[in-house]
Amino acid sequence: GQLTAQARELSLTVGTNRFDQLHFDLQTGLALNNYELILADSLSLTIGQGDTTLAGADGSISVNLNTGETRVQLNAESELPALLARFPVPDLKVQSGRLTLAGLFHQGQGKTNLTASANLSGLNGRYLDTPLVGVNGRLESDLGVVGEVLELRRVSLTGQRGVVAGGVVDLSGRVNLNTLASDLKLSLAGLNQHALGIFVDPMIAPLKLRSVALDGLATVQYVPVGTSTVSLETSLLKMLLEDRARRLPGEPMSF
Length: 255
Hints:
By secondary structure, the chain is mostly beta strands. 7% of the residues lie in helices and 72% in strands. It starts with a strand and ends in a 13-residue tail after the last strand. The mean pLDDT is 89.
């Protein structure tokens, strides 16, 4: 069967902020097969305020009532100017940009798996005095829980401005959720001014980061009872700061 739900003229208070004229529309198909499986396919959800759509989502849900096996697939997207106009971030002004999310959750047979991605595209605007032009970023994750162990099979963050890559950050490892015993690895590959400048420039103003190449590898092995180890290797090359007062060297520096 089909399920349709709507809500209009909702009000929401978050901290000291109040949001009026919120509305949502939900449509989905439901099925019960031999009292074992509930399906919610072609699920569609739209959230808006007044005449503006803030976010939309679609996906599917299945639950086996006998075994408890659950599978949830979800896609969502939002235009950032409309979203941030209602939920502003201090010092961030956005003229354009889109955020899309995708995820797949599966739980069954003693295992839990989650694969998810977040994609930021075409971000143009300004953060403090730092212009944001053609900023793109992507976060991908592949996680699992088996027994008491969280497996970080892959968590990867990439960024770029226009078609110019800004570098990659990767995290992987295992964490025991009971004892917190951990074995983690973090790698930085080719991080440059196109990725780091967005965060560094506001902190070092009036200086500006004009070039840099950062690579690194960090490993952590934490043992609750025993000897824990931490190792770190980094390479910082071709760092050049723009200094209009000319107090710093005008040539790239390496460490």
